[in-house]
Design brief:
Helix 1 crosses helix 2 (about 25-35). The longest helix is centred in the first third of the chain and has 24 residues, at about 1-25. The chain is built from 6 helices and no strands. The protein has one domain (about 1-125). The protein is mainly alpha-helical. Pfam families: DUF4267.
Length: about 120
């Protein structure tokens, strides 16, 4: 049980840090790759700031997962799931107004489902 969680938290933590770091240094590229309309990804002056704010949060959550021992990780996973849900809601709202591509909404749904599954699996133990 502990080894299973240890591997999962290290994988998710490391992935979060890598994605956050990429977004921190290439916010327009990552926004475009995730489905933001090309004209918005290139021309919106606020976009880099907003992406970098999300990137900083991703890096912080990834670091928290890497340093949090298994017994205290319950709260970290709850916060990560809450933030993932809020991210998905923001993407779905943007999709409804036509600001992002369908793949962003699908990707957000997959990420939310995987996060919810992981949190539920961890909390059942």
């Amino acid at each position: 049980m502990s080894n299973d969680w240890d591997g999962t938290r290290k994988t998710v933590g490391t992935l979060s840090i890598w994605i956050g770091t990429t977004a921190l240094f290439a916010p327009r590229w990552i926004a475009g790759a995730l489905g933001v309309r090309p004209d918005a990804a290139r021309g919106d002056v606020a976009l880099p700031l907003l992406v970098r704010l999300g990137a900083a949060r991703n890096i912080a959550m990834g670091a928290a997962l890497l340093v949090t021992p298994a017994p205290q990780a319950r709260r970290t996973t709850e916060v990560a799931l809450l933030l993932t849900g809020l991210d998905a809601a923001a993407v779905w709202t943007s999709r409804a107004t036509g600001d992002v591509r369908p793949r962003s909404a699908v990707l957000s749904g997959i990420v939310l489902a995987v996060a919810a599954y992981g949190a539920a699996r961890w909390h059942r133990r």
